[in-house]
Write a structure and sequence with these properties.
With about 425 residues, the chain is an alpha/beta fold. About 30% of the residues lie in helices and about 25% in strands. Strands 22-23-1-24 form a 4-stranded mixed beta sheet. Helix 6 links the parallel strand 10 and strand 11. It binds uridine-diphosphate-N-acetylglucosamine (UD1). Uridine-diphosphate-N-acetylglucosamine binds next to helix 1, helix 5 and helix 6.
Length: about 425
């Protein structure tokens, strides 16, 4: 098992190019199943979540070819192997996004209950509700989700909570259904807009993505096409917080600043200087006196749960009391115990974490418990005095492309062993 060894105390300085969005890529790769011709995707991040999903799709009969470092070609088969292998599916929660495309294109799907990060209960009732509304027969037996259907029929689906995955699954299923589907209380995340833009580029008719009311007119089949995936707002956000936490100055290139507004606002509230242009963001914390802040995670455009752990690391040395309330995933404070091993003062009560800023953190041996917890530990290690060893790095590799070279180019002392 590899580890990251980081010697802290260096302010990050320089420029870094942000990779393609993990969560948009995962949904879009699944969406490629709806196309009868070749789909070419640019700006696909080379991360293990993408590799695992491609492996799963390969076992189903999808022809996958890398055409360049970040360019992929996918060709879906006429008939599909409908059983996605357990060993692979259990590693990736997003494999649940195969359900909608498999059912609507091939009339059948069988996947084990997906795994992924350990950040809460993560039920699938809303995915099921949507697919059943469209006419699919869904069963869950001994940990295996089985679905079958003839052609799906457009329908109205109200989501009790704006789930990102359920919204994506229902959009994809509805693309090949008979007639119109309306999703009410849909999730509004930028990755949903990206999925809709991709599907529309292949001939789908998805309207309203980015609002809470999405309408889809079903088509017979989608054609092939080429599409460029949006930059990863969470990777960008992680570098922004790392720059703030180390009191450095970092310019992020290839970003969509609008997607980062909830984070930018909070960093500014904490006294961090953030300058925004059309597709760059400059974070300057070189001479600031950082201020404690309160954060509540919410569905987009609220503060993203995927940035909460990294902010906890940053706030751990900001003078005063900061409070974080986690409203999306109940298990996302496990990282607090690890940051505490480095000297932080954090109290967790249910969905609330109270952080009393300490003067500094010290290097220690810690372990990532999920992807963003891992990113938070990297930030904590970059701030800490001395050496930190981060175990279970495979969680971090799920979502950060070329993390060590990128951080090294910003002056960080980081290596893998
Ligand atoms: C996606 C992102 C993840 C991000 C999350 C919230 C991907 C691959 N992952 O995860 O990085 O942290 O959005 O922004 O895009 N829920 C239900 N029933 C369901 C589905 C979800 O109750 O059927 C609940 C979940 O338990 C959770 C909340 O809804 O409390 C949000 O989950 P959801 O938006 O579905 O997250 P994911 O799509 O799994």
């Amino acid at each position: 098992m590899s580890k990251l060894i980081i010697t802290g105390g260096q302010p990050l300085h320089g420029k870094v190019k942000v990779s393609g969005a993990k969560n948009a890529s995962l949904a879009i790769l699944c969406g490629a199943l709806l196309a009868e011709d070749e789909v070419v995707l640019d700006n696909v991040p080379d991360i293990s979540d993408v590799r695992i999903l491609l492996e799963i799709m390969g076992t189903m009969g999808v022809k996958v070819r890398w055409l360049g470092e970040e360019t992929l070609s996918l060709r879906s088969p006429k008939n599909i192997e409908d059983e996605a292998p357990y060993e692979l599916v259990k590693q990736l929660r997003a494999s649940n996004l195969l359900l909608g495309p498999m059912l609507t294109r091939y009339g059948k799907a069988s996947i084990s209950l997906p795994g992924g990060c350990n950040i809460g209960i993560r039920p699938m009732d809303l995915h099921f509700k949507g697919l059943i509304n469209l006419g699919a027969e869904m069963n869950l037996e001994r940990g295996i989700i089985q679905g079958k259907t003839g052609r799906l029929t457009g329908s109205r689906v109200y989501l009790d909570f704006p789930s990102v995955g359920a919204t994506e699954n229902i959009i994809m299923a509805a693309c090949l259904a008979d007639g119109q589907t309306v999703i009410e209380n849909a999730a509004k995340e930028p990755e949903i807009v990206d999925l809709a833009n991709f599907l529309n580029a292949l001939g789908a008719k998805v309207r309203g993505a980015g609002t809470d009311l999405i309408k889809i007119e079903g088509q017979h089949l989608l054609k092939g096409g080429r599409y460029t995936i949006i930059p990863d707002r969470i990777e960008a956000g992680t570098f922004m917080v790392a720059a703030a936490a180390t009191r450095g100055k970092v310019i992020l290139e290839s970003v969509i600043p609008r997607h980062l507004e909830p984070l930018t606002a909070k960093l500014r509230e904490a006294n961090v200087e953030v300058e925004v242009s059309e597709d760059t963001i400059c974070v300057n914390a070189a001479n600031i006196e950082a201020k404690s802040i309160d954060i509540k995670t919410m569905p987009y455009p609220g503060f993203p749960t995927d940035m909460q752990s990294q902010m906890m690391a940053f706030l751990s040395t900001v003078p005063g009391t900061s409070i974080i309330v986690e409203n999306i995933f109940e298990n996302r404070f496990r990282v607090a115990d690890e940051i505490k091993r480095m000297g932080a003062n954090i109290k967790v009560e249910g969905r609330m974490a109270v952080i009393e800023g300490v003067a500094s953190l010290q290097g220690a041996k810690v372990k990532a418990s999920d992807l963003r917890a891992g990113a938070a530990l990297v930030i904590a290690a970059l701030m800490a005095k001395g050496e930190t060893e981060i175990g279970d790095v495979h969680y971090i590799d799920r979502g950060y492309a070329n993390l060590e070279p990128k951080l090294t180019s910003l002056g960080a002392l980081i290596r893998r062993s």
